[in-house]
Amino acid sequence: MTTITVCNVCKTPGVSTRRYTVQRAGERARKLDLCETDAAPLEDVLTYADEADTGASAKKATAGRPRKRRVTTLEEIEQMKAKGGSA
């Protein structure tokens, strides 16, 4: 038996994925398999959280703040796909 895991967002076969477990406070956890492209907004959030935990973001603030990046939620990506837009 062969198992093929595809990205839960773009559903492209043959693209490597990574499993994420996401949970909002007070809600059940959801497991997502995401390709690198679709996982980028989540990775940005995780990187920011890691920097905040280590104090790295405070050190960067003295050198000038980087431009804020807009984080697109999975729901917004799905809505864009339904409308024929790109994520």
Q: What this model shows, in words?
A:
It is a single chain. By secondary structure, the chain is of the alpha+beta class. The protein has one domain. The protein contains 3 helices and 2 strands. It has a two-stranded antiparallel sheet with strand order 1-2. β1 and β2 form a beta hairpin. The protein is globular.
Compile the SSE list and pairings.
Layout: E1 17-22, E2 30-35, H1 36-54, H2 56-62, H3 74-83
Antiparallel strand pairs: 1-2
How much is the radius of gyration in Å?
16 Å
Overall morphology: globular
Low-confidence stretches: none
Spell the H/E element sequence. Answer: EEHHH
| DSSP helix fraction | 40-55%
Q: Please, how many helices?
A: 3
Question: For the report, how would you describe the main beta sheet?
Answer: 2 strands, antiparallel
Number of strands: 2
Tally the structural domains.
1
Rounded average pLDDT: 83
Percent strand equals 5-15%
Class from secondary-structure proportions: alpha+beta
Cα separation of the termini: 33 Å
The largest beta-sheet arranges its strands as: 1-2
